[in-house]
Specification:
This protein is α/β, with parallel strands linked by helices and about 350 residues long. It has helices at about 10-15, 30-40, 55-65, 85-90, 110-120, 180-195, 200-215, 225-235, 240-255, 285-295, 315-320, 335-345; strands at about 25, 45-50, 70, 95-100, 125, 145-150, 160-165, 265, 275-280, 325. Helix 5 (about 110-120) links the parallel strand 4 and strand 5 (about 125). It is globular, with a radius of gyration of 20 Å.
Length: about 350
Amino acid sequence: MKYFFPGIIKSKSEFKKIEPLTGFSIDSGEHAIRILLKSMNFKQGVKVAIPAFVCTSVSKAVMDEGLTPFYLDLKNDGTFITDYNFEIIKRENVSALIMVHLYGVLHPDNKIIEEFCLNNNVFLIQDLAQSYGLNEVNFNPYFPIIYSFGPGKSSTAAGGAIIHWENNSLKKIHLPYPNIIQRIKAYLFLISRIYGRKKHFFESIVQKILDKFYSHGHHITRMSTFQLKAAHFVIEKFNSVANERLQRWNIIDEACKKNKYLKNAMPKTPNLGFKYIINAHGYQVPFAKYLQQNNVPYYCLGNDIDKHINSEMNNFKNFATSFIEISCEASIPLTEMNRVAKIISKFKA
């Protein structure tokens, strides 16, 4: 199973007709968080509340701005949803909060968290890096929204990020566009996803050289026009694949219901359906091994999270490595989804 890119552009002339995606563009979601935190002129060291169960780029963005990440535990309901505990946030004198909507799922407490931040002067960043496609009517426009377009996200593998925010602060920020090397890297990374062909030998060699020796590091730029067009292209096709994703999601859900060792870790809330999250608590090691033996691709975010942050968070400590991600992308043939479902339903601890 591969990351989904919804549709292939048949010719370069077709691609040129696409209008670039509009918005305040940045070369990564991590840098988007940094830009927003910087815009608030926080004093060094102030606390920013973030989920413990989230990719490390969120905490890195906070620390790179000289601020202190304060980690929040998971809820105790067996889902991957973060508990934005208001008592703890007040006690810790948190100045900003990053609310991450993982796996294309709207956080079930979104509205009350927005109201809390409004009433307590807490700067809220809505991180929808994996959730392009959730209806923006669910969100208060007073707070900024970040969309990211890297691999594994809900919309595209174009790379980069877009900020939507009614505040005028971003108009004062001027970022350079990518240099020629960055544009070449983006093109080589996207070529198989956009044009549906393998890279030529020379293209592959150039990409390997650039990946090894060139990194933009802390230098923040905008997205290239090429990336903006790629992002816009897949977003335009987003709604056309929604039912296909849901169909595949339901196939895995039915398989999970048949297995007494596995549980659905998804909350009952708006869900884009591009991933299914299984709670394999107590059986995650044999289950992961079982999937590998049967050639079923999966991912476990909990394996990549800094284990030092979980000392006082019991739910995170117990469940972070229990969540297994299964892709439900529309590009996966139904025959493959049914094969995966059959394997999941037959798992025995």
